[in-house]
């Protein structure tokens, strides 16, 4: 699938395209405002939430479901292997880590 995940809409809720017909991406600041608005309605503190939080959440959820990193990188359009794993933010990263088993008392 090509194009932005979130695209711009005009006041009539129509998708906005460039001169070549490609959809224009929504501004990250707009995404951040929308995410904060929705979260604030649930009572979640939104101080450190940003548009970037969606990428972190996607990577973390995909990892928890066992989706291979290469597939998540394709979907999220990560280009560098070195930076993508930093988006996985959960404690279960240690569950398949062999060092925990090496250090465990038997």
Low-confidence segments: none
The proportion of residues in beta strands is under 5%
Q: Roughly how much helix do the residues carry, as a percent range?
A: 25-40%
Report Rg: 18 Å
Overall pLDDT level:
78
Number of separate structural domains? 2
Specify the number of helices.
Answer: 4
Largest sheet features = none
Order of helices and strands: HHHH
> End-to-end span in angstroms?
49 Å
**Main structural class:** mainly alpha
- Find the count of extended strands (DSSP E, 2+ residues): 0
Principal-axis shape equals flat
Give a written overview of the molecule.
The protein is mainly α. The protein has two domains: 45 residues, no CATH class; 39 residues. The protein is 40% helix and 0% strand. The protein is flat, with a radius of gyration of 18 Å.
Brief description of this entry?
The chain is mainly alpha-helical and 106 residues long. The chain contains four helices and no strands.
Features of the shown structure:
106 residues, mainly alpha, 2 domains, 4 helices, flat
Annotate the secondary structure layout.
Layout: H1 28-42, H2 52-64, H3 69-76, H4 98-103
Helix pairs in contact: 2-3
């Amino acid at each position: 699938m090509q194009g932005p995940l979130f695209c711009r809409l005009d006041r009539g809720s129509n998708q906005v395209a460039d001169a070549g017909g490609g959809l224009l991406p929504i501004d990250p600041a707009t995404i951040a405002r929308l995410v904060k608005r929705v979260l604030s309605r649930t009572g979640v503190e939104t101080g450190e939430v940003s548009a970037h939080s969606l990428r972190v959440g996607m990577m973390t959820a995909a990892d928890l479901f066992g989706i291979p990193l290469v597939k998540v990188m394709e979907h999220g359009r990560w280009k560098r292997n070195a930076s993508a794993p930093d988006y996985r933010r959960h404690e279960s990263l240690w569950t398949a880590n062999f060092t925990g088993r090496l250090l465990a008392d038997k």
